[in-house]
Every structure is written in structure tokens, then in C-alpha cells.
Amino acid sequence: MNILWRALLRNRGKVTLGTFLIGVHQACEALVPILIGVIVDRAVATRDLGQLVLWVGVLAVLFLALTTAYRLGARLLMRAIADEAHLLRLEVAAKVLDPRTEVRTGDVLTISTTDADTTSYLLDYLPRIFGALVATAISAVGLCLISVRLGLVVLIGTPLVLLALQRAAPRITKRVAARQEVAGRAASLATDLVTGLRPLRGIGAQEAAAHRYREVSGESLEATLRAARTMGRFQAASSTVSTLLACGIAILAGWFALSGRITPGELVTVIGLAAFLGEPFGTLSAAPGWIASSRASAERIAAVLSVSPESPPPGQIPIPSVRGGECVGVVAESDAAALVELFDDGSPDVLVAPHHPELFSGTIRQNLINPEKSDLPSVLVASAADDVVAAHPDGLDHAIADRGAALSGGQRQRLALARALLAEPRLLVLHEPTTAVDAVTEHAIARGIRDLRHRPGSTLGTLLVTTSPALLAVTDRVIVLRDGEVVATGTHASLAATDETYRAAVLR
């Protein structure tokens, strides 16, 4: 997937117009020293007031044009950059939110922020390169009109400088990619450590975890320094070469003026163009490094977007049918996760609550998504989340950290279950929703789910993928899956009484 090419295509309108306007701005910038030279020769040297007023007026119009072109062009390009970065973040988020896609958390952070921004900057780099080429071409033509030798220095020297600097682009790409890769590993490890801080303290492993993070952080620092050194050397070389080229033009022009080959106005033009050419030369010499950075980030984004979700082969795992008003339990000895994924197809009538709940920073109320529904108290009781709310003075307005880091595993599970129950989907699929709660709470939750969703006359269906006897006991029927096949069906009580394998799997 060519992320850079696609970015250009879907922003081609803004980029095309923005590039044209930046080209106009740079063309006007290059014409400024040429016009000043004309003013010196035609108005100052001849003391002609009419010519002075005329050419100063032309210069004022030129400044108005270059200012307007830059403001409009920069605004278009900044909008294109922001839109593209936003779209890339949405695509990365959609890919990693698919439970079937495995991507390290730290990689998600760096790819959706740094890499998305660096990739979208290409939409600014190319117009700037185009503008620098326009400015260089106009300056070269202006110098040729004054002296062919001066023009040839620009026309020949610029491509040679660019070709020499381009040789460093592959190394820059490699170093930037390595830096982002190690930074992703460090961020991922830090996220895992923060999430599992309580268990680590419980087993006394916080020092070992901290040592491991210091190692990865050190690797990230070293990779960052290597990339910075490479970019620093490249920028130093490009600036030095660009400055030397501009100085060479100015020195050559001074010699021509002393020998009488050019007029005072032409000398002013040459000196002005030599000073001005430092900007486009700097842009053109830095361009390979910019492109290399964008390409490195684009390759990391493409690697994530090209990951294919791992789906079980069609027909390998039977999909249990759940009738309206029915509560069905599924004991899948080895296919539980794959079975749950089969229901996660984005249907508005089906809600899949994963085994590992995700909470975000905010209040308990905000995490419940729709806490204004009239049956909120019943939902909190059914999920045993009323204890979590009551444990804090602020109640529903209690602030929780990202991923619920300050909550216990059982509290996170109960809040996630409350959120799922509050949505009232036609079919609710729950995958082991009570593994982090105690036995008493588990029985209360099982009865609460049954009473809330399957009261008389209810048309709602619930599928419990679990091995919890408390949850299975409130189901209408239980389906036992083994190696992708249905091996037993019946009530929890009947299976527990007659199937020894079932007893071994669920009775504990």
C-alpha cells in the first residue's frame, strides 16, 4: 500500500492549488531583487522621479501578490495536512480496534500520532520543493540575462548538489524507522507496566519490571540519538553546500562588477539573488531528508493497515442460534475467542462485550456512554456496579484514569458489563464477564443478567460464552463445543449430572 501516493491523490485539489500559490509566492520573491536592480539602473542612477514612482508601484503590487499567494496557499496546505493526518489516525484506530488484529499498544500510540503527522507533512514538502524550483529557475534566468556564466553556476550547481545529498536519503529512512520502532516498544512496555502495576507489586516484581523498562528506554534513546546525528550531519552538509554556492555567485558577481561587465543595478540584483537563493537552496538540499522521514513513517502505517485480521475458516465453528427472550450458554473448550469474533460483524442488533474490557479517562458516568436512561439503577444492580459507584463520594462523577488503571480488575469488569447492559442490544454476547469477581458477586451478576434481560415477555437474547457454573446455571440451555463441533446440548443441571467432561470443565 503506497500511503504517500494515496495521500496525494485524496488531497489533490487542495495540494494542486496550494502548490500553484506557493509557486507564485516564490516567483514573486525571486523577482524582488530583480526589480530592485531595475529601480537602481532606471530611476536612481538616472535620477528619474517618474521611473522611480512607476517601479516602486510595481514593487508594491509584487509584494501584495506574494503576501496574498502565501497566505492562501499555506492555509490550503495546512488544511490538507490536518485532514490527512486525521484520516490516517482514523484508519489506524479502526484497524487496531478490530479484536482480531494484534498490534502493540506503544506502536498504536506512535503510529497514530508521530507517524501520521510526519506522513501528512509530505503535502507541505512537495509544494515547498516546487516553489524552491520555481524560485531557482527564475533566479537562474535573471542571472543568465545579466551574465551567462552566473546563470550556468545555478543551473549546473543546483542539480549536482541535490544528487549528492540524495545519497543520504536511504540512511535517513533507515534511522528514522529504527527510532520509531524502538520508541513504539518502549511506549508499549510502559503501558503494560502501568496497567499491571498492582499485580507486579503483589508479586514483588516491580524492580525487575523497572530494570526492563530502563533497558528498552536506553535502546530508544540510542536510536533517537543515531537518527538525530544522521539528520544533523545531513542538515549541516546541506546548509554548508547551499551557503557556499550562494557565496560563490556573489563573489563572481563582485568580480564582474569590478571589471565593468555588469552595471551597479545588475550587481545589486546578483547580490540580492545570491542572498535569496539561500532559502530555495536550503529547501532543495533538505528535501531528501524530509521525503525520507515521510516515507519511513508511511511504511510503518502501511504495515499496520496491511495486517489481515485472523478469522476462523468459514463453517469451521458453528454459530449458535439464540431466539428472542432466550439466554444461551456456550462452553467452548478451545474455540471461545474465535466464536466470539464471529458475532463481531458491526451489526447494530448485536453487541459483543469482550473479555478484556476497555475503559477510558473520564468519569464513571462518561464511561457508561448513556447513563441518563431511566433503568440505570436496575442496570447498576444487575452488573453489581452499584458497589463501585457507592464506593466513591462523587458516585457517577468519580474520575477514573485511562484504561481504568486505578480500578481493580473486578471493578473494571462490572463497569464494562453495566455499559453493555445499558445499551439493550437485541443480542448481547458476553465472553467470561465475571472472571475477576468473587463467587458471591458472580452469583449476583448471573441472577441480575437473567432478571434484567429475560423477564416475562422479553424479546432480548443473551449468549454467555463462559465456563462459570454461576452464569451457566441461569441459562435456558447450554451448548458444548469441542474442536469446532457441537458435542452436547442441554440444561446446565442435566449436563452436570450426566456429562463427566462437562463437569470437569465447569464445576470448580
TrEMBL record:
Primary localisation category: membrane
User: GO molecular function of the protein, one example?
Assistant: ATP binding
Q: Which UniProt keywords apply?
A: ATP-binding, Membrane, Nucleotide-binding, Transmembrane, Transmembrane helix
TM helices/strands, residue ranges: 52-70, 132-165, 236-258
- Give the bilayer topology: Multi-pass membrane protein
UniProt superkingdom: Bacteria
Q: Where in the cell is it found?
A: Cell membrane
Q: Show where the ABC transmembrane type-1 domain sits.
A: 17-285
Q: Name one GO cellular component term.
A: plasma membrane
Cross-referenced CDD domains: ABC_6TM_exporters
Q: Which residues form the ABC transporter domain?
A: 234-508
UniProt-listed InterPro entries: ABC1_TM_dom, ABC1_TM_sf, ABC_transporter-like_ATP-bd, ABC_transporter-like_CS, P-loop_NTPase, Type_1_exporter
Q: What is this protein called?
A: Putative ABC transport system ATP-binding protein
